[in-house]
Design a protein that fits this description.
The structure is a single chain. The chain has nine helices and 15 strands. The protein has about 400 residues and is an alpha/beta fold. It folds into two domains: about 180 residues, Rossmann fold, CATH 3.40.50.2300; about 150 residues, Response regulator (Rossmann fold, 3-Layer(aba) Sandwich), CATH 3.40.50.2300. The strands form three sheets. A seven-stranded mixed β-sheet has the order 7-6-8-9-10-14-15, with helices on one face. A five-stranded parallel β-sheet has the order 2-1-3-4-5, sandwiched between helices. The radius of gyration is 21 Å and the shape is globular.
């Protein structure tokens, strides 16, 4: 309910924020935790007085992780619910379909996706990625550690759509600059459930298999990889995307023991031990193993969902700095956000400090490399923000509003 003004004025109308959620479809596990994180963040924001004295009303619509439905959800949130902002989209195919419609409707659209599609300049001035880093930044930061510590002959397995192509292109380029050789690149449909037929394309004499899998088949993927390579496997470096929502102690994942994974925010408590991370973990209801406190079998998407939390706090900061009161103030909101250079670590940004590049509407942050030890993840390396930066290839600020 609206919070009454202490001086007896009329209650402030809610600030309406629309969450475009993957409640169903291939992204459902992310959608569930994105929604849970959004609700927790709104509760914290409202308990602290809301945004610019206005309570936040969270309105959620399911896009089914489907590009066409994504467009419909943007239209429904903007035209029917008349939200002030739309946020939360993850899967790159949905982002690429939905963002142009948000631009046509002239409503700020803040994605929590990781794809390079925002920073590339392919989208529009109304679209931002201010709460989570993109794949190009992530792989730029971790590539030197991989090449130096794991080897220079690298084979890649990645999903056959835009997110996977970002890994293919940007990790491949970064590794080659460091003197590595990409000896194989194997795209796999994200809905695939059997993988043995793809493995003969991986040379057995490589130093490293770099894997980024999404979808329902991760347990099968790991089991079949183990059957193919056996005990004489190459080093394995993967992205936690493959294992979000999956218990690392699950039967079938034993083959990952001793391998390495990228994380944006460590799943297991104590691996990035700050008061802000502990408060965030408590607010969202996640236990020390990265699962729901109510159900230890319900494992979170911990390396992605913090972006939902941080994006909501970005909206809060920018609304309050810009003086935003309604759609007539969108120009002020956008120009204010474009002018921000840093987000400081704190409860609003528990993943760590951020650098924001307004020219490409993209945030940059530290990254973590963790090793699977005893069915859990232990951080072995943390990168600096500066290691993830790359030259901008676009400038949204030149586009008219």
């Amino acid at each position: 309910m609206p919070v009454p003004d202490p001086l007896g004025a009329r209650p402030q109308a809610p600030l309406k924020v629309g969450l475009q959620a993957h409640r169903t479809g291939i992204g459902a596990v992310y959608g569930k935790w994105y929604e849970r994180t959004a609700r927790a963040a709104v509760q914290v924001i409202n308990a602290g007085g809301g945004i610019a004295g206005r309570p936040v009303a969270l309105i959620i619509e399911d896009d089914g992780t489907d590009p066409r439905r994504g467009i419909e959800v943007v239209e429904k949130l903007a035209l029917q619910h008349r939200v002030d902002f739309i946020f939360g989209t993850l899967f790159s195919n949905v982002v690429l379909a939905s963002a142009p419609r948000a631009g046509e409707l002239r409503i700020p659209y803040l994605v929590v996706s990781e794809g390079y599609h925002v920073a590339s300049g392919k989208l529009n001035r109304w679209t931002f990625q201010a709460g989570i880093t993109d794949v190009r930044a992530q792989v730029t930061a971790v590539a030197p550690w991989i090449v130096e510590n794991l080897g220079k002959r690298i084979a890649m397995i990645f999903p056959d759509y835009a997110f996977g192509y970002d890994h293919r292109d940007f990790f491949g380029a970064a590794a080659r600059r460091l003197g590595a050789e990409i000896v194989a690149q194997v795209p796999i449909p994200p809905t695939e459930t059997s993988f043995t037929k793809y493995f003969p394309r991986l040379p057995r004499d490589v130093d490293v298999i770099y894997h980024v899998m999404v979808g329902p088949g991760v347990l099968t993927f790991v089991r079949e990889l183990g059957e193919y390579f056996g005990s004489r496997r190459p080093q394995l470096f993967g992205f936690i995307d493959s294992l979000e929502g999956v218990d690392l102690a699950s039967p079938g994942l034993e083959y990952l023991e001793g391998s390495y994974l990228w994380e944006a925010l460590p799943r297991y408590a104590g691996q990035y031990d700050t008061p802000w991370e502990r408060q965030y973990r408590e607010a969202v209801g996640v236990d020390a193993n990265g699962a729901s406190r109510e159900d230890p079998r319900d494992v979170s998407t911990y390396s992605h969902m913090f972006g939902v939390w941080e994006t909501l706090f970005v909206i809060k900061e920018v609304v309050e700095k810009s003086g935003y009161r309604g759609p007539q103030d969108y120009r002020a909101f956008i120009e204010t956000l474009e002018g921000i250079e840093r987000f400081e670590e704190g409860l609003a940004h528990p993943q760590g400090p951020k650098r924001f590049v307004g020219q490409i509407h993209q945030v940059f942050a530290q990254q973590f490399i963790s090793r699977v030890v005893g069915g859990k993840l232990e951080v072995v390396h943390r990168t600096r923000i500066e290691e993830s930066l790359y030259p901008p290839e676009a400038d949204y600020t030149t586009q008219p509003l």
